[in-house]
Amino acid sequence: MVKYAILGLLHYRNMHGYRIKEHIERNFGHMWSINYGQIYPNLKKLQDDGLILMAGVVQNDEKGPPRKLYAITEKGRHEFTAWLETSPEKSLLLRDPFLMRFVFYGFGDPGRAVEIIDEQIKKYEKDLTRRENNMDRWDKSGLYVRLIAELGVNLNAMMLDWLKHSREEILKAEARELDNDAANPNIRRAVS
Amino acid sequence: MVKYAILGLLHYRNMHGYRIKEHIERNFGHMWSINYGQIYPNLKKLQDDGLILMAGVVQNDEKGPPRKLYAITEKGRHEFTAWLETSPEKSLLLRDPFLMRFVFYGFGDPGRAVEIIDEQIKKYEKDLTRRENNMDRWDKSGLYVRLIAELGVNLNAMMLDWLKHSREEILKAEARELDNDAANPNIRRAVS
DNA sequence: AAAAAACATTTGACTCAATATATATTTTGT
DNA sequence: ACAAAATATATATTGAGTCAAATGTTTTTT
């Protein structure tokens, strides 16, 4: 996917490697990240395949070392358009070490589970504030980028709602457990 | 993560490799998948590390070849609990070839974009129906599994809302574009 | 003047996941 | 009886991503 992300970005303007990572992190950081270890090898491969070319080594009144500016070629535009117009072959992939743990919280200490859920709530609240504060920027970047930013906000808000709801359900279940334990002190249920 | 998923599942009951994959696909398929290429090497490693042991080779009045049943050990339970109680070190990771394309739809044909969005809407509608139909099953699997299933439903519904909203916005923008083009036929905007 | 920081490029080692394929055993269908 | 299908185990290869570190150049700080 890095290949097409780079080709896509080079539609906006010519860029050097370091700026490509910056741009991705600033604009897609809420849903995707990338490493230098991915950028430079891909730039080389795209260049070898004739999809981009190095348009120059410049500095443009900016600080720091000279930059290798990359530009997309006609061949690159063509291959990018073909990719853009094909239906995605795979579904959304989601990986979350927190959710992986959550599934098994029935085997652990509910108090600790609630602590970790509280940490997640704080994290998502922070992220949500940051995303909402950035909405002005997305508005200026075009319809599709704005819609993606809205998706990020929606996803964030949805996670927050669910986390808070889960927290309540867990505490309720615990209260019920304590009531049951009071009535039956010798019973200790291991699984909800 | 496969390691802890396997350890977690073996808290429910002893299982053989093939059944571990089945279980994960049936219960976490909406958010995680796994391959045989991951299961058997991990089973071997967990066994070598003393976290699980092979409890027997049985058939239990079931069809097909004999099964190697794995059971978690006390050491395995201990290490699993330690993992369960640590805070997750990484955030949610989300990868979607569709969203990767979506970001760049400004460079493509809006008609084709809407077609692909329609495909996604159909897919999520289908998934949502399936998840809602399965809610009874989750209800019986414990509080945490039910909450995760609800998250899957919420995520699905949120994606559907956003896709439909995006579709409307894109068509609106296109209509505006056509009005503009009618007034200024020599202008063809490449980017929203 | 020299050191530290910022900006930029690059690479190798490693981990994890995906994929394809192979083999084995039992059950079912022809 | 034999082939196909289902169930189960297993592995090698490839692809993708992570991570850490190295190197280079310019600018800023001490």
Describe this structure in words.
2 copies of one chain form a homodimer. Chain A is mainly alpha-helical. Chain A is built from 8 helices and 3 strands, in the order H-H-H-E-E-H-E-H-H-H-H. In chain A, strand 1 (52-58) and strand 2 form a beta hairpin. In chain A, helix 1 packs across helix 4, helix 2 (17-28) crosses helix 3 (36-48) and helix 6 packs antiparallel against helix 8 (143-183). Chain A starts with a helix and ends in a 9-residue tail after the last helix. Chains A and B meet through helix 1, helix 4, strand 3, helix 5 and helix 6 of A and helix 1, helix 4, strand 3, helix 5 and helix 6 of B. Chain A binds a DNA duplex (30 and 30 nucleotides) through residues 1-2, 16-19, 34-41, 44, 59, 62-68.
Count interface residues per chain for the largest interface.
Answer: A-B, 61 and 61 residues
Number of strands of chain A: 3
Helix and strand composition category of chain A: mainly alpha
Q: Which segments of chain A are poorly predicted (pLDDT under 50) over 5 or more consecutive residues?
A: none
Please state roughly what percent of the residues of chain A sit in beta strands, choosing from under 5%, 5-15%, 15-25%, 25-35%, 35-45% or over 45%. Answer: 5-15%
Tell me the radius of gyration of chain A: 24 Å
Largest sheet of chain A: 2 strands, antiparallel
Query: Mean of residue pLDDT of chain A?
Result: 88
Name the overall outline of chain A.
elongated
